[in-house]
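Troubleshooting log. The previous structure file for this entry was overwritten by mistake, so regenerating from the original sequence record. Sequence copied from the archived sheet and checked twice against the printout by T.R.
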Amino acid sequence: MAAYRQAIAINPWEPAAHANLGVAYLRRGAVQPAIDALEQAVALDPGLADAHFALAGAYAQLSQFKRAAVELERGLEFDPRNTEARRMLEAFRHR
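Regenerated output below.
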């Protein structure tokens, strides 16, 4: 995590650093900091499908299934063959 923070300090416009930091936060169970980092990543590069999918997972942990579905849809625009994301989207639509 320190390396991602250092990368962001050097270049705050690097979306991959924000995305990786967000995923690292998720792995530690820090959902809100993960959301903050992932939202920054997709704001900088909306084409980062994996960041959208990770953000969807973070929203789902907070039971924000509509927001999760929106992020899955956005991610699927860039990675339409992601079967796991499609399954998650169908599950969230039925909630």
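The chain has six helices and no strands. Archived copy saved in two places this time.
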